[in-house]
Amino acid sequence: MENRFWRIERRPEGTDFDEALALVSAPLPDLAQGEIRIRNAMLSMDAGTRLWLTSREDGYQPPLPVGAPMTGLVLGEVIESRAEGFAAGDLVRAFGVWGEVSQVDAAMAGAVKLDPSVEDRRAWFGPLGMNGWTALWGIERTGAAKSGERVLVSAAAGATGILAVQIAKLLGCEAWGIAGGAEKCRFLTDELGIAGAVDYKAGDLGAQLDAAGGFDVYFDNVGGAVLDTVLTRMNHYGRIAVCGLLADYNSGERTAPREFDQVLMRRLRVEGFFSPDFMHEGEALTARLREWTETGELVMPYDVTRGLDNTLAAYRKLFTGGNIGKVIVELEP
Ligand SMILES: NC(=O)c1ccc[n+]([C@@H]2O[C@H](COP(=O)([O-])OP(=O)(O)OC[C@H]3O[C@@H](n4cnc5c(N)ncnc54)[C@H](OP(=O)(O)O)[C@@H]3O)[C@@H](O)[C@H]2O)c1
């Protein structure tokens, strides 16, 4: 059986993904014990995977080798199984291959069977998946946000941020977002009804945040200059939940915050968190998130691109700000 998939040809510079990845075709090996073959119906585009494309050895997981297939979360039907607990016809989500088919060791790929009764399968990549878990964990556990507190989220119109602001609001907090552009800010305030949104691309972010007032919790998706600006707007004893440092992913730079002394001056707690650490709690987190999605209190807009050939254009949106909500590539007709 032939498989078309995206292979890493070299490490990308910035967003030159077209030069760095190539769509190739190769026969699939025989299925080994413990493996499943998934016909991918959807690919999840996640900004964090940009780190796996670098040569950094000090990340939370080793980089993907040049010559390897590009990896990410996939959703689809099992077409063949030699893994216990999985059978042909099961709907699954796993870390698979950006291709037509993912052939993976079910345990190593974190494959999970999904409830096929969920009407909108895209939700398994959004509120009911890693973005949902990350947003809930970061706001509630790492950020320890309490009802009545003021919570600020960066990249607030992206997949993770859009859930984080809504969850903060659901927990009784006053939720604010930082996003690039008037359309995104309007979406956050008018469609989601959060307390306020600040456009970091329109004028002085510091002045806009000063007008908004101090924050108790900052859920940071971007790091860089935005983090520096927020550090001097945190309330005393505030918490900064470091979810991602997107601003550095493409540049390959590591921007240390110049205002780090505010951690001391304002007695802040700064803590990073990574979803692999709480995957074992995934089911319980999903159950809570599902209640909110079923009541319509937690929503996700989807930015859907059709066709494997168009994957890189979809991926690029994460780094150029082209998306509102979750970016997905749909492979099925
Ligand atoms: N810790 C974890 O376990 C975990 C899990 C999932 C995701 N994450 C992190 O969450 C963050 C968001 O990832 P995602 O997959 O949900 O992507 P996303 O938010 O859907 O898309 C990324 C958004 O980030 C903004 N952005 C891009 N470059 C930026 C820059 N230089 N400065 C400021 N904003 C920038 C853009 O929106 P604007 O138009 O607003 O600029 C873009 O739309 C990433 O840092 C990722 O690593 C962490």
TrEMBL record:
Keyword Oxidoreductase: yes
Keyword vocabulary terms for this entry: Oxidoreductase
Pfam family for this entry, one: ADH_N_2
CDD domains xref list: PGDH (cd05288)
Residue ranges annotated for the Enoyl reductase (ER) domain, each copy included: 16-329
Official protein name in the record: Alcohol dehydrogenase
Source taxon at top rank: Bacteria
